[in-house]
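User: Please run a holo structure prediction.
Assistant: Happy to. Please share the sequence and the ligand.
User: Here you go; the ligand is glutathione.
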Amino acid sequence: MKLYHFPSPNPQKVTFALNELGLDCELAPVDLAKGEHRQPDFLAINPAGRVPVLVDGALTLTESHAILAYLGDRAGRLWPTTAAGRALALQWLFYLAQHIMPAAGQVALPLRAKVSGVAADEAAVNQGRQAFAAALPLVEANLAANRWLTGDAFSLVDCAYGPILNVADRAGFSFAEFPQTGSYLERLRARPAWQQTPKLPFL
Ligand SMILES: N[C@@H](CCC(=O)N[C@@H](CS)C(=O)NCC(=O)O)C(=O)O
């Protein structure tokens, strides 16, 4: 397998998961700061010009959450084996994609500015903070009842949430009103697989 990546949150979901699963995978860096994702050779691999991209034989897969589901099935670990379990895992991944990540992207604009060179729009950052806070109560309530998002056992769903909560925190979002989520982030950061995950200096 080969993973095209950059040490930013979406690819980090996959490098975190690969470390947790102990899977062998060649890492191919794509430097977003240098615009390598807009070069023809990379656009031939992913016309959307985004990372992560996983190549496994004839399969070229984009979208971090689809890659996590594939790796979980392929490894037969950290991914539910029942229909109900898989549906629940997907429920939390769709919630992250639809309701949390757009807001986290705005919260993280001051950090993204360090890579893109485009100054962060303060109004957008504040709007993002509000939307992010509005999306967290569901996560907080789940974590009050469960150690990890899908229950007692760590899963690849947690590999998806970790880098997003981490970037929001590093961008200055306070989890004081969401203590369960704040503790969950610390549990994620304590995992050796996360500590070995490539990170931009400010992440
Ligand atoms: N929905 C995609 C988002 C991927 C994405 O936006 N990745 C960022 C890096 S964290 C990227 O490649 N950005 C390039 C750009 O903004 O031009 C996923 O979950 O994989």
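The radius of gyration is 16 Å.
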